[in-house]
């Protein structure tokens, strides 16, 4: 794990914004590091400054350097596969959820065992969001419930159930007491974490909503849709602050879009978002026009499970078949998305 291999890979393809494949040219070698997990990687999150957090079907949580692929910590405690991982910005605490119905908190500088357990869901935990100060945690499950926890004591501070609300993802709105949630009932909800009540429900989509993200300024949120054979699979931009209406859609994936993230602003990059799909492609979009700026096909990776933005030009992508891919945005004559490493 973390060891650099001499093997060179050439299995990526680049596409123009209209979907046509570019003519073959010099291919950048992909650095192959030892795998972070045995088997599928189900979730990945960026840590500061150059670390990432990941969970997999091997039931473990790993902390790695995405620059070198070096493994720094491995946490083992779950009895079944890890479904979600997350952390608060600039916090030494990280969190994981699992199919064993359990959520655990781990200390980056502590022992290898969990420092806190959060037990109370009846089915697999599929949503995980921590407050900016890491004092509170919200969790969601296929048992139709959302729970709020005190991270110091492990106490459940609230529990709310909504019929058919099979939670798929949670994320905390920066600087606010609100938590965004997507669901298999095709809706996106905003929860007020103070009373654990629904503050707003966006108009239902046609397909299951699989993931969500919030822009750093708290103005917009994203959701992604399930799909197949070119039907569905879009990402949707919503206005969080004023009208709370749908702003635009980003269409181009042929299967379920499993993950969507806002990219941090860069000096040469227009406001952008990225999406990953079961069709093994990652796409970068112009947030304001809806145009596809770049597409990368990770051939042989299988379904892509999770995306994390490290900085304005670096993405991490978790895959079922081939580990965690490090992707780089290069802005030469045309914006291009390239794979530079995998671990």
From TrEMBL:
Show which residues constitute the signal peptide.
none
What keywords does the record list, in alphabetical order?
Repeat, WD repeat
WD repeat locations: 75-109, 118-159, 167-201, 250-295
Q: Which SMART domains match?
A: WD40
What protein is this chain from? WD repeat-containing protein 31
